[in-house]
Write a structure and sequence with these properties.
The complex is a heterodimer of chains A (223) and B (451).
Chain A lengths: L1 E5 L3 H13 L3 E5 L2 H10 L4 E5 L7 H10 L6 E5 L4 H10 L3 E4 L4 H15 L6 E4 L2 E4 L4 E4 L2 E3 L3 H12 L7 H8 L8 H15 L8 E4 L3 E4 L3
Parallel strand pairs in A: 1-2, 1-3, 3-4, 4-5
Antiparallel strand pairs in A: 6-7, 7-8, 8-9, 10-11
Chain B lengths: L7 H50 E3 L5 E3 L5 H4 L5 E7 L4 E2 L19 E7 L5 E12 L5 E11 L1 H36 L1 H15 L11 H47 L5 H22 L10 E3 L1 H14 L6 E6 L4 E3 L2 H18 L3 E9 L8 E8 L6 H9 L14 H11 L3 E6 L5 E7 L3
Parallel strand pairs in B: 9-11
Antiparallel strand pairs in B: 1-2, 3-4, 3-7, 5-6, 6-7, 8-10, 11-12, 12-14, 13-14
Helix pairs in contact in B: 1-3, 5-6, 7-8, 8-10
Classes of the chains: A alpha/beta (223), B alpha+beta (451).
C-alpha cells in the first residue's frame, strides 16, 4: 500500500512516516500544500493522511485539487481544532474521515486501514478469501484457521491482493504500490515473493489461492 | 458606488448644493425670460401708441405727402431722444426731427392693414425696436394712396434696466441659496449629533473609559446601539469564558505535570510510566479544545437557515460512519432558521448527531422545527436527534449532560459531546432533554427560545 503523508510539522511527519513504514506501508511525504498536491497528482497513491493547516497551499485546497482531477484515493484529515466546522469543511472538500490532534498513532493507523478496506468494498477488519483469512487490524493471516507466519513484505503483498479480491493486479502495479518512489525496481522480485506466498498459504498445492493470468498479473478470488 | 467624500454631512451638503444651484438657476432663468417678454410687450405698446398718434394727426398735403400736423410727443422733436418716426409714401417721405441724421434704417414695408415689428440698428450701432404699419389713405378725389407709418425706439434704456434686473435676480438667488445651505448645515449638525455622540462613546469604549453605550438614543439609532451593547456584553462573556477555560486548562494540567515531574525526579522515565500522564494531558487538552470552540451570544446574530448545516453534517457523518451503513434521515420544516453563530450550530448538531451515529444500531433521525410563542417576534428552534441504539438509562441522563463540565473532574475525552451540546444550548438560553426514542434508543431534544 502506498501512502502519502502531508504534514508540515517535521517531528510529527517523521513520526508518521516511520510508524507507517513499520506498519508495512510504502510512504511518500510532503511538507507543504503545493508539494503535497503534486505528489497526490503524480504518484500512484492508495491513501493520503493530510494535515489541514499547511504552508503555501491549505490541505483543503490540495484535496479539492485531487478530487477535481479525478484522483479518488481515500483521504484522512488531521484536524487541529476539534470543531465540526473544520471537520465538515474537510469532509465536504473530499476527505473521507478525520482524526483530531493530538492523536495516538494506533488511531490513525486503524482509520487508514478502515479506509483502505472500505475502498476495497470490505466493511470489516477481517477479510476472507476462500480458506485465507486476513485480519488487517492485527496484521495476522490464517489459512483454514491455522496462523501463518509472513514477512512484512509478504503481508503487504497479500493484503494488497486481498483488498482487490476478484480484480487482476499487474506486476507493474504491485511494484509501484509496494515500493516507494526512489526504490530500485525489479519485477522478478514480485514473482519470487508470489512464489513464497503460495508455498506458505498453500503448502499442499490444493486450493491455489493466488491465480496467475499470463501476461496480465495475479488475482485472488473473492469470497 | 465608490464615492470620494466619506462624511455623511459632506455628502448631503454636496448633493444639496448641486440641487439648490440647479433650482436657483432654473428659477432665475424663468423669471428673466418672463421679464423680457413683458418688457418687449410694453415697448411694442409704446410704439403702437406712437403710430396711432401719427395716424390721427397726419394730413395729406397738396403734393400727396402725408405728414403729422403737430407733434404731441416732444421726444419726436428732439434729435437723439431715442424715439423716432417716419412716414413713407410714393410722393415723398416725412421723418421726425429726432430721426434726422440718426441713420434710422427700417426694412419692413407692410401692405395696408399689416403690422410688422423688427429689430434694427442706427448708424451709431444703437439697437432699436421698430414698428411699421401699412395704411391706405382715402383722398377727396375718391382715389387712395398707400403709406407706411413707422415708429422706432432705442433699446438702450431697456437693456440697461434688464441688466439691473438680472443682477438683482442673480444676487438674490445666490443669497437665498447660501442662506438655505447655511440652514441645512445647521440642521444636519443637529440631526447627526447623535451619530457624533455614538462615535465618541465608541472611542471611549475602545479606550476603556466606558463599558457600554449610554441610553436616550433617537429611534433610528436605538436598534444599532441596542445590538452594539448586546455584542459588547457577548464579547465580555466570551472573554470571561476564555479566562475561565484558560484557568481551568492550566489548573487541570498541573496534576499530571506534577506526577511527571515526580517520575523524572525519581529517575523513572520509562515510556510505560509516563504513558498514563500523557494520556491524561491529551484528554484534558482535547476536552478543553472541544469546549472552547463555541461562540455563544445570540442577540446580535442574523437568522441562519438550519437545513444546510444539517445536510452538510449528514453527508459528513455518512462518510465517517460508512462502515455502519446508517440510515440517517434529516427532516427540516421549510424555512426553519435561527439567529445562531454558524459554528455553534454545527458544533451543537454535530455533537448530537455524532453521538447518535456512534451509539445507534442502524438508523438516526434528525428533525428541526420552528418553535413559536405569542410574544416572540423571531421564532425559536427545536432540534431532535433520535437513534435506535441502547438508549440512556433515566438515572444516567442528568450525569451525561454534566459529564466533564467541571475542569477538576476526571475527564476521559470520551462522551463529552452531550455536555458540550448542553453548554452551547445554555449559551442561547436553551434547554436540552434526554428521553426515549420511538426508534428504541435515545432521543435528545434541544429547545432554543425565540425573541
Amino acid at each position: 500500500m502506498r501512502l502519502l503523508v502531508l504534514e508540515d510539522e517535521p517531528a510529527l511527519r517523521e513520526m508518521l512516516v516511520q510508524q507507517f513504514r513499520a506498519a508495512g506501508f510504502a510512504v511518500d511525504q510532503a511538507a507543504d500544500g503545493v508539494e503535497g498536491e503534486f505528489a497526490g497528482q503524480e504518484y500512484p497513491i492508495d491513501v493520503a493522511v493530510v494535515d489541514l493547516g499547511l504552508p503555501r497551499r491549505s490541505g483543503l485546497d490540495a484535496i479539492r485539487a485531487w478530487r477535481k482531477a479525478g484522483r479518488s484515493f481515500p483521504v484522512l484529515i488531521l484536524t487541529a481544532r476539534d470543531s465540526w466546522q473544520e471537520k465538515v469543511s474537510g469532509l465536504d472538500a473530499g476527505a473521507d474521515d478525520y482524526v483530531t490532534k493530538p492523536f495516538r498513532f494506533e488511531e490513525v493507523l486503524a482509520r487508514v486501514q478502515a479506509l483502505l478496506r472500505r475502498t476495497g468494498g470490505w466493511s470489516q477488519p477481517l477479510i476472507t478469501c476462500g480458506a485465507v483469512e486476513l485480519d488487517t487490524r492485527a496484521q495476522e493471516v490464517r489459512v483454514a484457521g491455522a496462523p501463518v507466519e509472513l514477512t512484512a513484505f509478504e503481508y503487504r503483498l497479500l493484503e494488497y491482493l486481498m483488498l482487490r479480491a476478484g480484480q487482476v493486479v499487474s506486476k507493474a502495479e504491485l511494484t509501484e504500490k509496494l515500493y516507494e518512489q526512489d526504490f530500485e525496481r525489479d519485477s522478478n522480485t514480485i514473482e519470487v515473493f508470489i512464489g513464497r506466498l503460495r508455498r506458505k498459504l498453500d503448502p499442499d498445492d490444493c486450493h491455489q489461492p493466488i491465480e496467475t493470468l499470463r501476461g496480465r498479473g495475479y488475482r485472488i478470488a473473492r469470497g | 458606488m465608490a464615492f470620494p467624500v466619506q462624511s455623511l454631512r459632506s455628502r448631503l451638503l454636496l448633493t444639496l448644493v448641486v440641487l439648490l444651484l440647479i433650482a436657483a438657476a432654473a428659477a432665475a432663468f424663468a423669471l428673466d425670460s418672463l421679464y423680457r417678454n413683458l418688457g418687449l410687450r410694453a415697448l411694442e405698446d409704446v410704439l403702437d401708441a406712437q403710430v396711432m398718434a401719427l395716424v390721427s394727426t397726419a394730413e395729406l398735403d397738396g403734393e400727396g405727402k402725408l405728414a403729422p400736423q403737430n407733434l404731441a410727443e416732444p421726444r419726436l422733436a428732439t434729435p437723439g431722444s431715442g424715439l423716432y418716426a417716419e412716414i413713407l409714401g410714393s410722393q415723398g417721405s416725412w421723418r421726425s426731427p429726432s430721426a434726422v441724421g440718426s441713420g434710422l434704417n427700417l426694412a419692413a414695408e407692410p401692405l395696408p392693414g399689416e403690422r410688422r415689428l423688427e429689430h434694427s440698428r442706427l448708424a451709431n450701432g444703437t439697437p432699436v425696436l421698430g414698428l411699421s404699419l401699412g395704411v391706405r389713405w382715402e383722398t377727396e378725389d375718391e382715389r387712395s394712396r398707400d403709406f407706411v407709418i413707422r415708429a422706432a425706439q432705442s433699446l438702450v434704456p431697456w437693456h440697461r434696466q434688464l441688466l439691473r434686473v438680472r443682477t438683482g435676480l442673480a444676487t438674490g438667488f445666490l443669497l437665498l441659496t447660501l442662506l438655505l445651505l447655511g440652514g441645512l448645515a445647521v440642521a444636519l449638525r443637529f440631526a447627526l449629533g447623535p451619530l457624533r455622540r455614538l462615535e465618541g462613546e465608541i472611542v471611549d469604549i475602545e479606550a476603556g473609559r466606558r463599558e457600554s453605550l449610554g441610553t436616550g438614543w433617537p429611534r433610528e439609532l436605538a436598534g444599532v446601539t441596542g445590538n452594539l451593547n448586546a455584542l459588547l456584553r457577548g464579547e465580555r462573556k466570551r472573554l470571561e469564558r476564555y479566562r475561565t477555560t484558560l484557568g481551568n486548562l492550566a489548573h487541570s494540567l498541573k496534576t499530571p505535570l506534577a506526577a511527571m515531574r515526580g517520575l523524572v525526579e525519581r529517575g523513572e522515565v520509562e515510556p510505560a510510566a509516563l504513558e498514563p500522564q500523557l494520556e491524561r494531558m491529551q484528554a484534558i487538552v482535547q476536552h478543553q479544545l472541544k469546549r472552547a470552540v463555541f461562540g455563544g451570544s445570540g442577540t446580535t446574530l442574523i437568522d441562519q437557515p438550519v437545513g444546510e448545516p444539517l445536510e452538510q453534517l449528514r453527508s459528513a457523518l455518512a462518510k465517517v460512519y460508512a462502515d455502519k451503513r446508517i440510515t440517517l434521515s434529516v427532516a427540516v420544516a421549510p424555512g426553519t432558521a435561527y439567529p445562531v453563530d454558524a459554528g455553534d450550530f454545527l458544533e451543537l448538531a454535530g455533537n448530537l448527531m455524532d453521538n447518535a451515529c456512534k451509539y445507534c444500531r442502524g438508523s438516526v433521525a434528525v428533525r428541526a422545527t420552528p418553535w413559536t410563542a405569542a410574544d416572540w417576534r423571531r421564532p425559536g428552534l427545536v432540534l431532535e436527534v433520535e437513534d435506535d441504539g441502547k438508549g440512556i438509562e433515566p438515572a444516567e441522563r442528568a450525569h451525561v449532560l454534566e459529564r466533564g463540565v467541571r475542569a477538576d473532574e476526571s475527564v476521559t475525552g470520551q462522551g463529552i459531546g452531550l455536555a458540550v451540546a448542553r453548554e452551547i444550548a445554555a449559551a442561547y438560553a436553551g434547554t436540552i432533554e434526554i428521553s426515549e426514542s420511538r426508534l428504541g434508543g435515545a432521543r435528545v431534544c434541544v429547545r432554543l427560545p425565540g425573541r
